[in-house]
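Lab meeting notes turned into a lecture example. A postdoc, R.K., suggested we walk through two folding results consecutively so the class can see how the record format repeats. The first protein's sequence and structure tokens come next.
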Amino acid sequence: MSETTTSSSRIGRIGGLVMLALAIAYGIGGSRIEYAFASDPLGPRVVPVLLAVILAVLCLFHLRRPGTTEAFPKGPLLAKIVAVPLLLLASALLLEPAGFVASIFLLTLGVGWIFGAPLRLALVGAAGQAALWWFVFAYLLDVYLPLGQLFG
């Protein structure tokens, strides 16, 4: 086995292990959902647990035969790959204090800017996305969205 194949196989297995850990965590979280006895016979647990089981089985297949993968990213590409989940985390943490609109605005602005949009277009896109999703959730779907301390 060449060095590239061994490294590629190892990276594939690391990804498979990470996804397997996420599947297990998702399954545990889904199994802890409480619901009223008189509700749907299957209850709300079935879908998340079933998805977790399917993901875990697929991860086990992937761990057995990881196939070939790209080399591990370095430099600017790695920074972009790490920045997006960090933006998602920041957006989730800002949801209550800043509100839905500000949180989505910052998320889409950051993602647009990370992937090379000029700042002016990223600002316009972020404003459009924030307004669109506020309208869809608040007015069309009638879902409560936090206004945050800035607007509420």
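The second example is placed directly after the first for contrast:
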Amino acid sequence: MMDMPLFRDDVALPEWTGDLEQDAIAAIRTVFDPEIPVNVYDLGLIYRLDVSNPESIEIDMTLTAPGCPVAGEMLKRVERAVLLAPGAKGVKMNLVFDPPWSPATMSDEAKLELGML
């Protein structure tokens, strides 16, 4: 499988704030699900973000479906995006399915984008 591009052409890189957690979130918001026009953060796929150790930022991420054909690539895209944040030195991605993802985890912005509000 060919690597998917890290960013969509219509998504600008974030302006960095110097706050590692906020910058990591901004970076994650540049990564979009290939089938849903919403970034993975607002889609509710990021369950945990721990920036207490910049050498190994820990991220628990799920997928909209366990059988997602681009699962491995999605985790790599989030990891690469977070590593762009100033101060980020390493990322440990954990793929989790408990609790299962549901549309209830989406932000209001995502729901509005998808016509659910």
